[in-house]
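Researcher: I'd like a structural prediction for the single chain below. Treat it as a standalone chain; there are no partners to consider.
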Amino acid sequence: MPLERSLARLLRLVVLLLLFHPVDWREHTMLCSMLDPLPIPHEQYQPGDLLLGGVSSMITYTLHTSSFRVHPAEKAYEDPHMVTKFYQHILALLFAIHEINEYPKILPNITLGSHIYDSYYDVKMTYRTTLDMLFKSQRFVPSYKCDTQKNLIAVIGGLGSETSFHMEDLLSLYKIPQLTYGSFAPEDATKSNTFYRMVPNEDHQYIRIVQLLLHFGWTWVGLFAVDDESGERFIQAMEPLLSQNEICLALTVPVPKRFLWNTLNDIYEIASNIYETFPDTKASALIFYGDSMGIVTFSMYMLLGDPGSKESAALKKVWIMTVQTDYVLIGHLKYFDFQYFQGAISFTIHTMEVPGFQNFLQHIKPDSTQGDGFLQDFWKQVFDCPLLNPLELLKDDNACTGKEKLESLPYPVFEMHMTGHSYSVYNAVYAVAHALHALLSSRSKHGAMAGDRRFEFQHLQPWQLHRILQGISFNNSAGELIYFDETSERITGFDIMNLVTFPNKSFGSVKVGRVDPNALKGEEFIINEDIIVWQASFNQVLPLSVCNDYCRPGYQKKKKEGEKFCCYDCAPCPEGKISNQTDMEDCVKCPEDEYTNKDQDGCLSKATTFLSLEEPLGISLTSIAVSLSLITALVLGTFITHRNTPLVKANNRHITYGLLLSLLLCFLCSLLFIGQPMKVTCFLRQAAFGIVFSMALSCVLAKTITVVIAFMATKPGSSMRKWVGKRLASFIVLSCSFLQVSICMVWLGISPPFPDFDMQSLTEEIVAFCNEGSVVMFYIVLGFMGVLSIISLIVAFQARKLPDTFNEAKFITFSMVIFCSVWLSFLPTYLSTNGKYMVAVEIFSILASSAGILVCIFSPKVYIIVLRPELNTKEEIIRRKD
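Model: Treating it as a single chain, here is the predicted structure.
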């Protein structure tokens, strides 16, 4: 396998050697720098009253092999290879000039011309061509002007920041407006006021890249940047911006700016280092920063490093391309396979369809434009055919016919739709034209001479345009508003494009979104992901680019020690918390009226619960309360019926009636605790319970004390006889009841009970209950009843053995024992239960304690009255006493 792979790489390298002529870029730079004085053959000059100059970057390299060398001063530019796609920039400039010259309302009686130079990607050539624009003569003599017809008014260029700023070094000295159509880093913003940018700086692009990553949820990304100063600056700007938005860089890979043909080992080492980053990272989203030639170089290294498998790791990535990158192919590489970049998402300068531009391109022929030094080389290279000299006798069957159509060319070779950079060039020409129009209109209004047109034009200076350009505002032919902001920068948006490759190795771009800084809030970034074509390996499913799988709902992130913050484990949510989204940092509690579901990924509404009349417990307690009430009523009726019998008379029948009536009310007041708590029921139930129970206990206490006093009054000479009778018993009942009523009135006046909801006690239910208002007053009421019951128990216990035929003390003792036992067990049980069971405990305590008094005190009497009436006679009482 290693041998087969090596042979495959060697074969691939041989193919590249045949397709891409070896060029040492460093040596090419040296050749260019040696030219002095070398006429520039690839230039275009159209005569006119006013000229627009420009420096382009079209020629990418000059043929130069190790086997054949030519003298640089003679043949260095004889057979240049062009970035043919960039030729559209020149055509856009010519089209704009043609429109302006054909439309006299903008510049009447003025003809715009153009003079275009190539920078050859070389610093010295850039300076030379810039000087040549300023001081054109047969020989290069700086500061000498001999062409009176040439009146340079503005310069458009260049595409790259290096070219633009080298030009600006010279143009700023003469205050000539320079309009650039490439995107530069914000740190590269010149301090000169002669510099105008037709596209936004890179700072705007950084934010939009982050916005794109956040839109797709890509938090683990790779960054490939050209290995130069601009690439380093891009990395330094992106790293903190990504970190601030919780996006991590999985890897940062420097990419050679140009393909260097050194030894095979060096080539393989660079290619392997680049390719090996793909299978070693989980990052599916990779950002590429570099110019158009950089992407070509990078593609070649990828091709060399790729083992050629259909499962290649390089085919499982999503590339994000910056504005600087355009998909171009040069020379014989125009059929290079771009399958690695299938589905790539690119930011491009926003463009609109300019009416008439495609029709203008369709009429371009190799002999249609005079003075165009680029057109014939362009035509030969894009159609791969030689152009014959009409004077030659011999004809080549493979020669260009001149009828070839530009629309038949593939996308990376030439594009019929106006590109973003061409659109910027087009707008730059119109900006200068409108500025000239405003300047000339201003002169005419101030009474300038109009007779000698040439004299007026000769005295028109470039620096006079700056004041107008800084405030220029117009609508272009596409209907878009063109203007500069306070930093001499045109604020425009970006188009988001999707690269689609085809089986025949051609490809094209589809617009899938737009970034518009001037749009309404929330609409600045729009992307239609439904029409995006992803890399085939993703099967049209949105790719994931994360360090690890997302934490599904019900889990939360847990940091991994020693890893970047984008890498984490997933831990289940703690009890009582949920996470209803993927990748939540922390689980959250549900609202008070909701509870967590089983999977802890959502909240369910709590059901409101209370002791209802419709449930078994409520029905049971209601039935018991009603039954005991009926029994008490029957007992009361029995005693009233037999009120004149000795048994009833002997036990203080008025107190007995009061006790039975109080017990009846006790049983009935328990019904106030059943059902949904309402304002009225909450207000009454505890107070009613406290008052009627106090009356019952007061009656019991009165009965007990009456028994004791009655026994003590039977002793000779006892002073207790005066207390025997109804007055003492009535006083005890009324005073004790009044005291409890007073406590309850204070309670209801200060802090009365009210309906409330308990959302914390039960996990899945909301308990509707009556809030006691003042808990202290509630326990004071209970405490007062406890005091009465304890006093009754003590007195009854002491009087249980007193000699009396109808002594009730022993029965009262039993009833008080039951009463105290019930209510002593009530407190801990009441405090340890929740919800409706608290209410059930209180109802049970009321019913049990009341039933204890009823049974213990009245069952023996009812038995005698109803079943043994013979014992309820005066004779039987006297007999039993004797």
